[in-house]
Specification:
Helix content is about 65%, strand content about 0%. The protein is globular, with a radius of gyration of 23 Å. It is built from 21 helices and two strands. It has about 475 residues and is mostly helical.
């Protein structure tokens, strides 16, 4: 019998319970998720808004990432995954002690420190996504307060209820592979609710919504897309076949969603929209997230078709027909790309979930309760399939109600202390008034550059008269059908 290589033998730094391969992958997956926020969403936000808001938008994301990390190790991780305090929440506690961090995580064969980091970057990106609905008008001091309050009183509740082994929805059998409910529905509903309380941007900012740099916008969404390999691939907490399937399904669904959105834009507006493609990428990523490792490849394609069409309809058609949706100012259409797509993903997970794949993911004795409706109908377990759909809908309803209530209370509390909106002067001037800085300093100094009519997008902040432009993804969240 061959001896085990020396580097695989357990020692004080690598206990016998730790799988080095799983630990290496989990740290890599966590870093990929972190890169989705920093720099992914920083670039995406900074480039999708008007030039005068580029700095503030990017900075909101960076601040949120840093604040969430500290709150997470301070109390958030244990509130989300620790010992049960009440039915929907864990006991607060620090995650900084060496004895705690170097012990085995509550799931998987790697240290708790790895789990804290992995779950921490998930918490970070959720809060950063909320910022996308509040760009261009939220008082930065209000945002400073909003981030730790929302993480503490909303995110931890959803995470504990759905992901913690002690959570009540987890025990019922809700399927949320990598955060369809906990992250995307939460962020979409919370952003939409906060947008209502903060109010809309200045009228001129709502009328003129051209991104300031479409090429950088594509770079940002590219980081988001590729980073999703860690987002969904890390959910099984192991270097497993299910992780491989989850990654492949993620990219298949996203590619299908992108092409579906592109086709609809071309058919109805006559031009293939680059901004539309960005939205199609995001809706595909969001929709597959709760299902990534528990559905077959053909189901991932069907989910991509739905995620590229239903949010397209709600954004391009319903947005202009429903008065309430027109009133809520959502600059980057977070409600459509995350709330709507996330809800679709949760429902479709309940329909397409494969019992065998659920067994590979959950690795629990009662895995057979995870039966998608389609397979329930096929195998004569119709009641089990409908039961799973009911649990999925119940989980979605819980997350929606939770975020409407907690986000409203948080916003009402904050406005007792500081204004939720920027002053009229700040709304008019933008970054220079809020931060005393400009994202594009060379333009501010009026230096002369040869401007390309192909790659550059200018707004009324430029000294020269702007060229007419053709944008088929129409105002991102505010579209006029013609």
């Amino acid at each position: 019998m061959e001896s085990i290589p020396a580097n695989l033998l357990p020692d004080e730094a690598s206990p016998a319970w730790m799988n080095k391969g799983d630990n290496a992958w989990q740290l890599t997956a966590a870093t990929l998720v972190g890169l989705q926020s920093i720099p992914g969403l920083v670039i995406l936000y900074g480039s999708m808004v008007r030039k005068k808001w580029a700095l503030n938008s990017a900075f909101m994301a960076i601040y949120a990432f840093a604040m969430v990390i500290l709150c997470w190790v301070g109390w958030g991780f244990r509130m989300s995954f620790g010992d049960k305090l009440v039915v929907f929440l864990g006991k607060p506690g620090v995650a900084l002690d060496e004895k705690f961090l170097l012990g085995q995580a509550f799931l998987g064969y790697f240290p708790t420190a790895t789990m804290v980091f992995y779950q921490g970057v998930f918490a970070c990106i959720t809060v950063v996504l909320i910022a996308g609905a509040l760009l261009g008008r939220m008082n930065f001091r209000a945002w400073v307060m909003f981030v730790p309050l929302w993480l503490t009183f909303s995110y931890t509740v959803a995470a504990f209820s759905i992901w913690s082994p002690n959570g009540w929805l987890a025990k019922l059998g809700v399927i949320d592979f990598a955060g369809g409910n906990v992250i995307h529905v939460s962020a979409g509903v919370a952003g939409f609710t906060a947008s209502y309380w903060v109010g809309p941007r200045a009228d001129k900012d709502r009328e003129e919504t051209q991104p300031n740099n479409i090429i950088m916008m594509l770079a940002g969404v590219g980081l988001l897309w590729m980073g999703w390999s860690g987002f969904n691939g890390g959910a099984p907490f192991a270097v497993s076949s299910d992780a491989s399937l989850a990654i492949l399904n993620t990219h298949v669904c996203t590619a299908t969603s992108l092409l579906t959105w592109l086709l609809l834009d071309t058919c109805f507006f006559g031009k293939p929209s680059v901004i539309g493609v960005v939205q199609g990428i995001i809706t595909g990523l969001v929709c597959i997230t709760p299902a990534a490792g528990v559905v077959q490849g053909w189901a991932a394609i069907l989910m991509g078709l739905i995620s590229g069409s239903v949010p397209w309809y709600t954004m391009m058609v319903l947005q202009n027909k429903v008065k309430f949706l027109r009133y809520i100012d959502d600059p980057l259409a977070v409600f459509h790309t995350h709330a709507i797509a996330g809800i679709l993903g949760g429902i479709l997970t309940g329909f397409f979930a494969v019992p065998k794949l659920c067994r590979l993911f959950y690795l629990v004795p009662d895995w057979d309760k995870y039966i998608g409706l389609a397979y329930g109908l096929q195998t004569g377990q119709t009641s089990a399939g409908f039961h799973q759909m009911g649990i999925q809908l119940g989980g979605i309803l819980f997350v929606v109600c939770l975020n409407i209530v907690t986000t409203s209370i948080i916003c009402l509390f904050i406005r007792l202390i500081v204004p939720l909106r920027m002053s009229e002067e700040e709304l008019h001037i933008g970054d220079e008034s809020v931060h005393g800085e400009k994202a594009f300093a060379l333009f501010a100094e009026k230096q002369k550059f040869k401007k390309s009519k192909i790659n550059a997008v200018y707004d009324d902040d430029d000294e020269e008269e702007e060229e007419p432009s053709h944008v088929t993804s129409r105002s991102i969240g505010e579209v006029q059908m013609v």
